[in-house]
Amino acid sequence: MDKPLAGRTALITGASKGLGKAMALALGAAGARLVLVSRDLPQLEQTAAAARERGAEAHVFRADVSREDEVRELEKQVTAAGHRVNILINNAGINVRKQVTEFTLDEWRSVMDTNLTAVFLLCRSFVPRMKGQGYGRILNMTSIMSHVSIPGRTAYSASKSGLLGFTRALALELASENITVVGISPGPFATEMNTALMQNPELNQQFISRIPLGRWGRVEEIGQLAVYLCSEEAGFLTGTDILIDGGWCAQ
Ligand SMILES: NC(=O)c1ccc[n+]([C@@H]2O[C@H](COP(=O)([O-])OP(=O)(O)OC[C@H]3O[C@@H](n4cnc5c(N)ncnc54)[C@H](OP(=O)(O)O)[C@@H]3O)[C@@H](O)[C@H]2O)c1
Asked: Residue 2: what pLDDT?
């Protein structure tokens, strides 16, 4: 079908850049109405403009998804604007890379709050509105660090492993509503989150040497996977996690 997601409304967090922006452009091109969320309205507007150029309808909402009050307010605003969300993509995320002994409690909490608690807050707000539609998709951005790890990733790995458990449990809760819940576990992708690593020749080489395909992932490669997972054809996939990692976890 030309527009497999026509008639669907997708709320995507962290849509201002990186993987979130790429998924927004791909879902918009596939016909979904876009509800784009991050803390940076001007950047979000750029994503929305790019999506509209490709023929999509796109709306932007500012929210810090790690904050309970802001997610409640987002729920109110999105609902008041008449958007009936049936695709929720929990993509916003951060990484703090350091040894466990170097972490402050605030840094630890910021990773947990953004990568894990925010997903709970968004699901608590939007799942009740997704029920009763006979169709729903929740995609959670997990990570290869939900499956394996490397030094300096305690908080990130803990948050993403927790998110994988959350994904499985929520899939069971929502199966009777025909709302599927799936994780997407990217390996290293060329986004702002990894700019510092990519710009350090030694670290860049270290990463590439660990990726069997020998390169960083390209953001467009996530977009089409998300479109498939939101399609009717992916309706039997739930409570599971798709690795898109250039072979990292196969080793
Ligand atoms: N890139 C990779 O290699 C990779 C690998 C595995 C998993 N992932 C996961 O994929 C997701 C996207 O990563 P990315 O590489 O695209 O990262 P990125 O380029 O750094 O973008 C992160 C996005 O999250 C948003 N965000 C962060 N904190 C937020 C908050 N408190 N409230 C609202 N939005 C917030 C940012 O928006 P604003 O700054 O505009 O608020 C931005 O849009 C993350 O969950 C990440 O952990 C990435």
From this structure: 85
